[in-house]
Amino acid sequence: MKKQELRKIYKQKRSELTPSIIEEKSISIANKSLALPIWQKENFHLFLSIEHQNEVDTNYLLHILQGRDKNVVISKSDFSDTSMKHFLLTDATKLVVNQWGIPEPENGFEVSPKQIDVVFLPLLAFDLKGNRVGYGKGFYDRFLSECKNKVMKIGLSFFEAEEVVEDAHYSDVPLDYCITPQEIYTFNQEN
Predict the structure, then answer these.
(1) Which amino acids are annotated as binding site for substrate, given as ranges?
(2) Can you say which residues are annotated as belonging to the binding site for ATP?
(3) 132 is catalytic
(4) For residue 155, what are the CA distances in angstroms to 3, 33, 56, 79?
(5) Alpha-carbon span 39 to 65, nearest angstrom
(6) Which InterPro entries does the UniProt record give (predicted)?
(7) Are the C-beta atoms of residues 131 and 168 closer than 8 Å to each other?
(8) Is residue 159 within 8 Å of residue 182, measured between CB atoms?
(9) Taking the domain 3-186, which CATH number applies?
(10) pTM of this prediction?
(11) Which of 57, 117, 172, 176 is catalytic?
């Protein structure tokens, strides 16, 4: 299937999830992350969930990262040029929900994308080759192109892989892993 069709299907599937199912599946995804070979890394980029989009609740993953004394980096989006700035999440970080429902840091210590070791990515769908289908604005593809070559890219999904995203583009940055409540998919093992 093509990205536009997959976006429509998976937005609908997510809209049907109840808060208790989102919580259960999000906890399972966070627990599965413990099996990944990432825990020797230091700097982790985490998206903060858009509640009205029924995204994976990353608070459980955040608790694991903080419990392991990892540096957690979060983003602030600029919709005028589809760029993102990245900030270290600390106890002093004030979060504000923007007009699109995205929790973002109001201020803080800015972090260069080159310093980030692991990126957890939001997505609507993905395929067996690690191609990710997001909301279509390209924020994360641009961000990932600014990261170091060996950054680990980990998708989080409530649903299993599609066979193929037919219109995946060469500029789309593929995932290294994708965690679902049922399993961990492994793709590009050059890291």
Answers:
(1) 50, 55
(2) 3-7, 132-140
(3) yes
(4) 16, 11, 10, 22
(5) 9
(6) FTHF_cligase (IPR002698), FTHF_cligase-like_sf (IPR024185), NagB/RpiA_transferase-like (IPR037171)
(7) yes
(8) no
(9) 3.40.50.10420
(10) 0.93
(11) 172
